[in-house]
Write a structure and sequence with these properties.
Length: about 230
């Protein structure tokens, strides 16, 4: 017992550890700091984070991860051997919050694609701090970031796309946008007979629903979007 306690004291996160070792679709609500280990390919992981927490995800395979939150978040993806990850962050808020998303490439030939989409409305002030790290020696690694926050009804936002690349034989890209929807896009939808308010709602929903989501997961997002769309 003494040895176990000593090990726990050295952990960054002490609350819980979850491991996914079999292929499949998993849904998990997180309310406390958590370490997640993913050791099998063909896994889709859907997370709902309900508190201001820290999450560390250790990845040894090819996976897709979806996380939805309305609060602060500090999430780190550790890309270990054979790791290829598509990570989707979805945040809606009318409060001042910060999401820190970090992908650390710790092996050669690892791939991270980080897609972070958010909506800041009302008194919201949403920040995305997106970090990509490729350590020296991890050749043929790829780190991509795409971040977008839509401001509505006075909402504010900030995106910091950071790339810390110590290996020349690697590839890293980022793009970021904050602000309202493009007026040209709205005009195009209206030219097709869609009313302005409906066009706006379609674009907001499309921001989060580019991928197929589980029904109950999608319903939670819809409930928050309804609140945000009261304009």
């Amino acid at each position: 017992m003494k040895c176990e306690r000593e090990i726990e004291m050295n952990k960054i996160l002490l609350d819980s550890t979850i491991s996914y070792d079999k292929e499949g679709i998993y849904k998990q609500e997180l309310e406390k700091d958590t370490v997640i280990n993913i050791n099998n390919s063909n896994i889709k992981l859907y997370l709902l984070t309900k508190e201001s927490i820290k999450i560390i995800i250790n990845i040894n395979s090819e996976v897709e991860i979806y996380n939805f939150t309305t609060t602060n978040l500090d999430l780190t993806l550790n890309l270990l051997k054979n790791a290829k990850v598509k990570f989707y962050q979805m945040t809606i808020t009318d409060k001042r919050i910060k999401n820190i998303i970090t992908a650390t490439h710790q092996y050669q030939e690892t791939i991270s694609n980080l897609i972070c989409n958010g909506i800041s409305y009302g008194n919201g002030n949403l920040s995305f701090i997106v970090n990509g790290i490729i350590k020296k020696g991890n050749i043929n690694s790829i780190c991509n970031q795409t971040s977008r926050i839509i401001n509505i009804d006075g909402g504010k936002s900030l995106i910091e796309p950071n790339l810390f690349i110590d290996e020349y034989d690697s590839l890293a890209n980022h793009s970021a946008y904050t602000g309202p929807f493009d007026e040209k896009t709205l005009f195009y939808l209206e030219s097709k007979g869609i009313k302005e308010e409906e066009a706006f709602k379609l674009l907001l929903k499309g921001l989060f629903k580019k991928e197929t989501l589980p029904k109950d997961y999608e319903e939670i997002i819809d409930q928050i979007l309804i609140k945000a769309l009261r304009r």
